[in-house]
DNA sequence: CGAAAGCGCGCC
DNA sequence: AAAGGGCGCGCTTTCG
């Protein structure tokens, strides 16, 4: 550690880290590298405590196991990990504050999902992406670094090989300039030929390359068109990169931490909807038949309610002709036939039974009463966070079971009308910016459009989603006259999205969000892309147009939300609180009861600080609704 | 046979 | 004339 200090590490200075299995780690800072083969997590803790550096990693996957807390690793989410690492916020230890996730920043710059080290390296070198590394997971995620979680541990002593020839003769970069896939894998798994010293020396080299890649990414971010330099002197895209990196860290913590769920309440709630937990397979079949019976009484026993095809035919047989069987379509036919009502009830119950039933509880709620699923800091489209295990689609009925633990409260904070406010910022529409002065933005919009509030809301949402039919279409024309700057911004995005092909030889700048994230659009040289080749080209283009129109708003909103969330994450550390859920425009915090008021204030401060730089100069106001409660469902919305 | 697509729906 | 974005999940049907 003294060596690191001597080398000039200080708060915010980059320190790259590469794990080698679980008992080896290499750090790089400036022109110096260090390798450790014993208790690497302790090394990281000490460095964090002493310097608060900006941690640089190729990706949180794999590296994250080093960050797992020592004291409360009860999750199973890091099963197989030795569980030693930087302590998470809330248990009195240190949480890494600053980081740079090369994979996350790569996705910001280039779009898409691919973010393995080989792809990141190729991009910073201006090379074409190399072939994808082998997949290790059944879900299709590229997950090379995760392999270290299953790798054999490095012995701490003995087995000391020669540092030397085999390292130099087998370097990381091939003749084509690409990282050598085998080298990456061997380095991360710690399976390179030779002893501990050899393997750690390789990791040192990999850490040095991480610093090279980081510098290149930051240069690229600074060189993006329309730099939007913030009051701190830093372009917004660089701030986006930092926030997106921290969001990956937050996602990792959310996956480990889980959402508090009161199991008995959850069991009772589910039973109240679909009946008691079946004892065995026979019981399950019986319960299923009992659910189906009230509907099949009208349709006959041969109809398979779970097959849309069969259901549609069955409905037609009783005189109900529908193009599909979606519930909004059936709702419109309420009263037309006695089957509709029980069918809709069946759908709701079936949802609970299949997706959010006892099986779901057993699969995802741990013995500690925490609902856990995987989290990712950004999706492949506009960059929202995603979560598994139904964490982002928990039915309202089940939220009564999300109960704070004894001595704790939830602080629920959600951003009001974030998307239209974001639209005001990114488009620079002065009239829409004026409307954001109100707590309820739709009130002044309704006044200006001379429609009622519900119509105004539909019109605004329709403008952002690309809907033009129905009542929304009428109000949309009025929107266009009243907020021409905002609408022109959306129209421009749509035009890029639906443009099937740039003129030959002309490359257009890619579509980016306000914060600089590249929005992935398919290359369609002849008006279609491979996946949609069979579909009507105009429909395909229109669809991509709507996607782009929405993505510039949804994506920018996601960036502001995440920048806010990671700021809250930091402010919660000294208050002993934790973020337990991120829901696109809403944060759920689990905090000591006696600190709840302080957390509320800190959450507001975080929004003021974040919006202050993110929306600097726009005149746009952001508002948060913040409530304290014991149950998620009790927080007013 | 397993993988992928399509449907429908929960949430935002 | 019509044209609604994103995600994950479980089910059925179809593809290869």
TrEMBL record:
Keywords: DNA replication. Its EC number is 2.7.7.7. Transmembrane segments: none annotated. Residues 397-595 form the DNA-directed DNA polymerase family A palm domain. It comes from the Bacteria. GO terms for molecular function: DNA binding; DNA-directed DNA polymerase activity. It is an enzyme of class 2 (transferase). SUPFAM superfamilies: DNA/RNA polymerases. It catalyses: DNA(n) + a 2'-deoxyribonucleoside 5'-triphosphate = DNA(n+1) + diphosphate. Pfam families: DNA_pol_A (PF00476). Residues 69-91, 121-140, 515-536 are annotated as: Disordered. This is DNA-directed DNA polymerase. It comes from Parafrankia colletiae. The lineage of its organism: Bacteria, Bacillati, Actinomycetota, Actinomycetes, Frankiales.
